[in-house]
From TrEMBL:
GO molecular function, one term: metalloendopeptidase activity
Gene Ontology cellular component terms for the protein in this record: membrane
PROSITE patterns: LYSM
Names of required cofactors: Zn(2+)
Domain LysM stretches: 430-477
Organism: Novosphingobium resinovorum
UniProt keyword ATP-binding, yes or no: no
Biological processes per GO annotation: proteolysis involved in protein catabolic process
InterPro entries reported in the protein's UniProt record: LysM, LysM_dom_sf, Mito/Outer_Membr_Metalloprot, Peptidase_M48
The protein's name in its UniProt record: Peptidase M48 Ste24p
Keywords: Hydrolase, Metal-binding, Metalloprotease, Protease, Zinc
Recorded superkingdom: Bacteria
Length: 480
């Protein structure tokens, strides 16, 4: 369910996208808005990385940003490499541009990175976020629900508006879903910026193809075709845009890609979860710093975020997060329920709160049944007192009578030893040089994964099963 239903056909959409938008220079108001949002976004997306990798991303980002006409001064732009394990990139007014280390690792040359950053700058230059906000406000008046990041978490609208409320997170400025015509226009603006900066404009098409393949791989690994990765939730359907981007770039295009330089400069990036933020490994989540672990139910998958872990399956949804415990677990649970209630809605309260103990940890839980247009749903808050004023809790949502699916997860949380915590190692992106006799399979066998190693290697390197490796060629692998 999107914010805006676009009824124009593909030809009309491409014609609309090809119109050059009016570009507005960065204003004092833009700078003020961006400066206010910047620290909030850093906190939400794991903070900004520093060091040579971040400096390199900043250099490329500023080079492409000045092509937009928003400003001719590179100092007017702030480019941040985010310590986040999701494939995401975005920009906000005021010259603030962001890309996650995970999405950076998916790219295969500098031109692709410039293309992604240029695409995001294009959204700002064309004022797409402002347009979407106006559309959202108009649709809210009409009673039409907007699609936010919760759409990516929930996968469908089976749990209704209440499910959207439960699992929505992130700045509205970022989570407004762009329309197809806006995506095409941002692609074309990004390509224009690539040409101006001397990059190969075909890189926009190749990075969109990598994103489309990564989306498909993630859906395959999760056993579903209806789970949308974070970048795709706000930037719909990169697969459909590949050909349009290549056509706009022109088949005979040329320019630099700086492939080897790019690969050398991103070598060593943390790939996937940073242990400091907790690590998802299959159905198991371990936080070595906070010293606890739990397991998702069979058939569910987890996505680790900075503020919460999202657990999703066909029979329910959940989030795990924490907070300060200034009173009893009863009041903590009541407070979590209170936070779910819109100001114009009846207060959601559990029928009762029961006390228990889980693996030696004091715990309590409450259940509330909520009526939705799609039927009744059960909301459970299961909280744990970890001592020293710190609590953690699961917030789960299932069809009425179906909350028992989460019982094994509730009972799985446990403290871990220093030895267990010390055994959790980060995965790292490593750039290696192909040697004589190396094959896709032999290099994929070195990947730090027990499932789909070959598929992961091919998508990571923008290759297909028939790609021949050449001695001396640089490729990416993921190791511990």
């Amino acid at each position: 369910m999107g914010l805006l239903v676009v009824s124009a056909g593909p030809a009309r959409l491409e014609a609309q996208a090809s119109k050059a938008p009016q570009v507005y220079a960065i204003s004092a108001a833009d700078k003020s808005q961006g400066a206010k949002a910047h620290p909030e976004l850093l906190a939400e997306f794991g903070g900004g990385l520093t060091g040579p990798q971040a400096s390199y991303v900043e250099q490329v980002g500023k080079r492409i940003a000045v092509q937009s006409g928003l400003s001719n001064a590179t100092g007017d732009f702030t480019v941040t490499l985010l310590n986040s394990p999701v494939n995401n990139a975005f920009a906000i007014p005021g010259g603030y541009i962001y890309v996650t280390r995970q999405l950076t690792a998916l790219m295969n040359n500098e031109a692709e990175m410039a293309g992604v950053l240029g695409h995001e700058v294009g959204h700002v230059a064309a004022r797409h976020s402002a347009q979407r906000q106006k559309a959202a406000q108009r649709n809210q008046i009409l009673g039409v629900l907007g699609s936010v990041l919760a759409g990516a978490v929930l996968g469908d609208n089976a749990f209704g508006q209440f499910g959207q409320k439960l699992f929505s997170q992130g700045s509205q400025l970022l989570t407004l879903k762009f329309s197809r015509s806006q995506e095409l226009q941002a692609d074309q603006l990004g390509i224009t910026y690539l040409k101006r900066a001397g990059y190969d404009p075909r890189a926009m098409s190749s990075v969109l193809e990598s994103l489309a393949r990564q989306n498909a791989l993630e859906a395959q690994l999760r056993g579903s075709t209806n789970q949308t990765p974070e970048w795709a939730s706000t930037h719909p359907d990169p697969a459909s845009r590949v050909r349009s981007a290549l056509t706009y770039a022109g088949q005979g295009s040329s320019g630099t890609t700086n492939r080897d330089t790019f690969l050398t400069r991103i070598d060593g990036l943390v790939y996937g979860d940073d242990p400091k933020q907790g690590v998802v490994d299959g159905r198991k989540f371990t936080h070595p710093t906070l010293r606890f672990a739990f397991e998702a139910p069979d058939g569910f998958f987890m996505v680790n975020g900075t503020q919460a872990v999202t657990i999703s399956g066909s029979s329910g949804k959940a989030q795990f997060s924490g907070g300060k415990l200034s009173g009893s677990l009863d009041s903590y649970i009541t407070g979590v329920f209170a936070g779910l209630t819109e100001s114009n809605q009846a207060r959601i309260t559990p029928a009762s709160i029961e006390k228990t103990t889980v693996n030696g940890i004091p715990a309590a839980y409450g259940v509330a049944r909520v009526q939705q247009q799609s039927g009744a749903v059960d909301v459970v808050v299961f909280a744990y007192d970890f001592g020293n004023g710190q609590a953690y809790h699961f917030l789960t949502l299932a069809q009425a009578g179906g909350a028992e699916v989460f019982t094994p997860m509730f009972r799985s949380i446990r403290r871990i030893s220093a030895a267990d915590a010390g055994s959790v190692k980060p995965r790292l992106l490593r750039v290696v040089t192909v040697r004589q006799g190396d094959t896709v399979r032999s290099l994929a066998a070195k990947m730090a994964y027990t499932d789909a190693a070959v598929d992961r290697f091919l998508v990571l390197n923008g290759m297909d099963a028939n790609t021949a490796l050449t001695p001396g060629q640089k490729v990416k692998i993921v190791t511990y």
